[in-house]
Amino acid sequence: MEYILETERLRLRKLTLSDLDNLKETLQDPRAMYAYEGAFSEKETLSWLQRQLERYAEYGLGLWGVEEKASGSFLGQCGLTYQEWKDEMVLEIGYLFSPRYWGKGYASEAARGTKDYAFNVLKEKEVCSIIRATNTPSMRVAIRNGMLARDTSIKHYRGVDMLHVRFVAKA
After folding, report:
1. 60-65 contacts at long range (C-beta below 8 A, 24 or more positions apart)
2. Distance CA 66, CA 75 (A)
3. 106 — pLDDT class (breaks 50, 70, 90)
4. Diameter over CA atoms, the chain
5. pLDDT digits (tens, 9 = 90+) for 85-102
6. Rounded-to-integer distance, Cα 163 and Cα 45, Å
7. Residue 158 has what pLDDT?
8. If you write DSSP's letter for every residue of the chain in order, what string do you get?
């Protein structure tokens, strides 16, 4: 297995089609997906995975699978994606973990490692995390990752207008 980056407790790698069941644990859990207006269907989960594979092919980036080093357990996803924000493309650190791994610092550790990768390996000057305004735990991860709230925008998703906050860190 080829890993993109490692932190003290975690390894991050590209997702593969064999990760579909791993992704279901998070993407089909209503608690994990509350910021997306509910759990994904089988079709939406497969589409999510296919989108990551397309991102790898197009940009060399995407959300990566996060594994715990000690156990090899699949914890969730964290990575870099290009997102549209106010008519421009920005590089975003995204993260989404299974609820059974919440509260253990995994999201913060993975996001910090991903930020370091963006700045030190990719030589990016800025990264952001775009977070639904009601998603306080994800905002705390962004703040722990040295990001500051920069601006807001409304995103339309699944028939709902949602206020989002963009947190930004500079190299």
Report:
1. 62/14, 62/15, 63/15, 63/94, 63/96, 64/4, 64/12, 64/13, 64/14, 64/15, 65/12, 65/13, 65/14, 65/15, 65/19, 65/22
2. 6
3. very high
4. 42
5. 999 999 999 999 999 999
6. 24
7. 81
8. ---SEE-SSEEEEE--GGGHHHHHHHHT-TTTTGGGTS---HHHHHHHHHHHHHHHHHHS--EEEEEETTT--EEEEEEEEEEEETTEEEEEEEEEE-GGGTTSSHHHHHHHHHHHHHHHTS--SEEEEEEETT-HHHHHHHHHTT-EEEEEEEEEETTEEEEEEEEEEE-
> Is residue 1 pLDDT above 80, yes or no?
no
Query: What type of residue is 149?
Result: A
Token pair recorded at residue 170: 């500079």
Is residue 115 within 8 Å of 107, Cβ to Cβ?
A: no
Position 167, amino acid: F
As given in the structure block, the two tokens for residue 116 are: 């370091």
pLDDT digits (tens, 9 = 90+) for 134-171: 999 999 999 999 999 999 999 888 888 999 999 999 99
